């Protein structure tokens, strides 16, 4: 994918997310999926949940339009759908999912692209030759994807 295609994918995803977010918010309000302020939150009034559905729509549309229709892309999209469903259940369930159940779901969702041959094969550092991860690429990719999920979730 060249820079112009990447820009196009970004713009498509942005337009879809911009259009889907208010629809998703209304849907969440109708279902009563609201996040009430807690001491650690930045919002001071209830806000709708299920925002992952809008993000999923944006990512899937851009992926289908700009990425090759191959095993890796299908694995990434399937993993995204799986983690979005887990997030939606977590949002909709009063009190959320138990942390261990959520973590197990994250690992299961992350395993889908890894099973589809999506993995980090080497590690590059400045002034050092690339380090081939070999078979370690699979578990390290799995752990890395789950770590990124949680970093995004914390933000």
Order of helices and strands: HEEHHHEEH
| Outline | globular
Q: Could you tell me the number of beta strands?
A: 4
Q: Overall mean pLDDT score?
A: 94
The strands making up the biggest β-sheet line up spatially as 1-2
The major beta sheet can be summarized as:
2 strands, antiparallel
User: Terminal Cα separation, in Å?
Assistant: 29 Å
What share of the residues lie within helices?
A: 55-70%
Determine the strand fraction and express it as a percent band. Answer: 5-15%
Structural class: mainly alpha
Helix count? Answer: 5
Stretches with pLDDT under 50, minimum 5 residues: none
From the alpha carbons, calculate the radius of gyration and give it in angstroms: 18 Å
Question: Would you write up a description of this structure?
Answer:
- This protein has 155 residues and is mainly alpha-helical.
- The protein is built from five helices and four strands; from the N terminus they run αββαααββα.
- The protein has helices spanning 3-31, 51-66, 71-92, 99-115, 137-154; strands at 34-35, 47-48, 122-125, 128-132.
- The strands form two sheets. Strands 1-2 form a two-stranded antiparallel sheet.
- A hairpin with a 2-residue loop joins β3 and β4 (128-132).
- The longest helix has 29 residues, at 3-31.
- The mean pLDDT is 94.
